[in-house]
Amino acid sequence: LRTHATPEGVLAAADAALSAGEPATALQWLQLLPVPPADAASRRAMALAQERSPGLAALRPPLPAQPPQLQCDGPANQPTCGIRYSHNLPFTLGSSAYALAERGEWPAVLVLTTALLEADPGNIRHHQLHANALAALQHAEQAREAARQALRLPAFGTLPAVERAALANLAQDYPLQAQAYDEAEQTGTLPSASLQDAAYAAERVGQVAPAARRFRAVIDQVAAGQIALEPQKLQDVRVAVGALERTWGASVGLSSTGGSSIPGSFSTGGRERNAQFGTELFWRPQDWRGYGTHADLYVRTTGNVHAATGEHSGWPSVQLVLGARIKPLAEH
Question: Which of 18, 115, 232, 305 has the fewest beta carbons under 10 Å from its own?
């Protein structure tokens, strides 16, 4: 019977074997195809996946609602008959993978997307879901490499801008992430739920004005009840706005100490006290700002308003310091 099977009949038999969890039988049927059609690739990949992960229910695709049909053409006394069968297995498996992802069943999603990519390595949607599954399972290095592979596909540009931004973030391509969010904002396709991510993306690449604008939009939308944010996270957003928009600052201080203010001198035991002042004025260049990093140029003055015996006070005691202060790490 197998010797005379048509390609449609072979695919129908292979699907029945896959649905029953019999990968060896499915592979035997597929070997009968002299020139395997494109539809055979997904069946072969699924059979190999079943062999690697026996018993995984997610790898048993349901059979199509329309069973194989025997169709005959020609005269009634000499008809030409053949099997008519249609089953878009990659679509069925892809739908199953998305349903599993919604339920948080990421190990099964990973197995499914691995098989789907073996059959169709250029499918951007399957790459996207594969990278997300790796990230959800905390395989950071593998997720980053999977996302970078997706970025190199010609079909990457067909994804919506927000989805491109998410993949670029996973790949740690931050300029590309910021560019995608810019496009989404310009085209009016940036959803409220992505505003905060878009703000951080802009801040990461030094786009101060867009970052501050988006953070302020988050605050406004929280106030309007359009999005929900925990109080601490909302406070973090307010702090971020202040840090981004701060370009200069000043401080003045007064202190009183017992004894001499001259380094190395002996204390008078608090009977004579020094009254000292200090001022600082700083400028924070926006062009030097990074993601959580900045540099300040400052001028600082210190001096004595009142000094112990033998020390200067007033203008003769004033010291002027010019300097730079750098915050090189975002986390500290």
Answer: 232
What separation in angstroms does the CA of 157 have from each of 129, 151, 177?
A: 16, 8, 13
Type of residue at 113: T
Helix axes 195-204, 174-186, angle to 10 degrees: 130
Residues of the chain under the 50 pLDDT cut: 1-3, 260-269
CA 125 to chain CA centroid, Å, is 15
Local structure of residue 40 (DSSP, 8 states): H
Q: Residue 241: what residue type?
A: V
Per-residue model confidence (pLDDT) at position 264: 44
SS3 172: coil
Alpha helices in 88-230 (DSSP H): 89-102, 106-119, 124-136, 140-151, 161-170, 174-186, 195-204, 208-223
Name which of 303, 325, 321, 323 is nearest 313 in CA terms: 303
**Global confidence as pTM:** 0.68
